[in-house]
Write a structure and sequence with these properties.
This protein has a three-stranded antiparallel beta sheet, covered by helices on one side. The protein contains six helices and twelve strands. It has one domain. The longest helix has 29 residues. The chain is globular and about 60 Å long. It is α+β, with helices and mostly antiparallel strands.
Length: about 250
């Protein structure tokens, strides 16, 4: 999983004294990531900064992602201090770190987990996860609420992507962008909505997409594609012809 190095279940006994230092202003853990998953409810905010595309081959894997860079393992939205670029939307996938919900057990319920390799965890300072009696702190309750909300929105986004696939609206495209020196960057194998196919849908189908809240997401996605043209100005170093494959 992106970012996460060593995921373990949150345990009231093992982690009773664990604290998390917050407000560090760094997202170094996302430094070598050129895309992150995105929930549909984030499209309107994310579309101002990132190209939003779709990735995954099978219906159960197809989802939306925000592109963060032009090269593999390079995030153009971190500054020299590894803080997220000022004024840019920070995706929920990034904000939930170092916590995550993982499915486990015979009943398939979700368990709150954490990446215990994250350097901001300690027993000396930070936000405690449990109080002196071993109960969830308000901080942890807020984290869990955020995780549950993100999971629900992710499931809804999966349904959205499946609907696009069902309607045969997704096509594979490549995007070429150039910097001021006319050096080219090619983004390959990007799945996007085909506008011509969208226009061919009958009124009943379009109406249902609108009622489901999907039509606005589609337009936000389409409007976001042009954000790729701004990426070369964020490059930390000049390079020649390059390409990445989102696939």
């Amino acid at each position: 999983m992106l970012f996460y190095q060593h995921i373990v279940p949150l345990n009231r006994d093992n982690h009773r004294n664990l604290k998390l230092k917050t407000g560090l202003g760094t997202a170094e853990f996302a430094k070598e990531t050129h895309y992150v998953p995105l929930a549909g409810s984030e499209f309107f905010q994310a579309a101002r900064d990132y190209p939003i595309v779709f990735a995954g081959e099978s219906a159960g894997e197809l989802g939306a992602v925000a592109l963060l860079g032009l090269r593999q393992n390079e995030n153009l939205f971190l500054d020299e201090n590894n803080a997220w670029r000022a004024g840019c939307y920070v995706p929920a996938f990034v904000r939930r770190y170092p916590f995550v919900l993982a499915r486990g057990g015979k009943d398939g319920d979700y368990t709150v987990c954490l990446d215990d390799s994250f350097h901001a965890f300690s027993e000396e300072e930070g936000e405690p996860l449990f109080d002196g009696e071993g109960n969830d702190t308000e901080y942890l309750k807020n984290v869990i609420n955020f995780l549950n909300g993100y999971l629900a929105e992710s499931d809804r986004t999966l349904q959205f992507a499946q609907k696009l696939q069902e309607l045969d609206l997704l096509v594979t495209r490549e995007i070429r962008v150039s910097n001021r020196e006319q050096r080219n960057f090619l983004l390959r194998d990007l799945k996007i909505v085909d506008e011509a196919r969208l226009r061919e849908l009958d009124d009943g189908v379009l109406g249902q997409l609108n009622r489901d809240g999907y039509l606005g997401w589609i337009y936000a996605h389409l409007m976001s594609i042009g954000n790729a043209s701004r990426f070369p100005q964020y490059m930390r170093q000049d390079i020649g012809e390059a390409e990445i494959s989102r696939g």
